[in-house]
Write a structure and sequence with these properties.
D-amino Acid Aminotransferase, Chain A, domain 2, D-amino Acid Aminotransferase, Chain A, domain 1, 8-stranded mixed β-sheet
Length: 278
Amino acid sequence: MSGTHGARAWSHPRFEPTDEPVGPTLAADSWLVEDGRVLALDRHRLRFADAVVAAGGDRLDALTAARHAMAHVPAEGRWSPRLDLTPSGIRLRVRPAPERTATVEVVTAARDPRSLPLRKGPDLEALGALQAEHAELAGAAVEPVILVDGLVVESARSAVLWWRDGALCVPHASIPHLPSVTAAVIAEVARIDGVAVRQERATPAELEGAEVWLANALRGIRGVTRWVGGPQVAAPTRAAAWQERLEALRAAPAERARVDRGSADRAPAERAPSERPR
């Protein structure tokens, strides 16, 4: 996760190519860019700034770097920019995004590897290891769902949402989990549509018969078709229509045309990312 190919170092007011390794991640954020359009980019920028402050960094510098990051993203294609705050400063990598899949299988995680569940970055390596462990045991497409005191909280790479009695349900705020940008947008769309949004404390067994989703920035909404060794979940009949709603909300950043693209000599693309951009 800390590859060096194509990394850029932030030196106000621009990113400069660097050959230095991207060191330990203190804070991070990433998002999906499709032909220059992004879902809720400002929310990702603010979440990165909050994470940087929590790690002892400068909020204004983080916001400025995040604003300039899009200048290094090609205008066409699917890309996943990632910002990292490291002990050496802010780093940017622009990687090709993997193909989206509409469905996913999940399994209950054997453990909770998170140390700082409210901040994206420090736990990415541990969560990647958790994903790899369960992929080896249950199949490459299976994503582990983490429990806290037996309650569903999130997966290794995504937010978890479910439907019960016509209401969209999310893990209760009292259960420590990453504030997901994608899940927040979904909840906002639901409220606009008059759909009830409910916080719940639910065990896997209590999701028997529910339509369950995983959601993150990179993959959008994926309907859970099977919970390996767990509850029998309902077919994800709502997921495709709601994914279309998210796609319609993508927009090109207003400042993109104003950024000096002449200084944004693009790096060679890296391999597709495996972390959990939400």
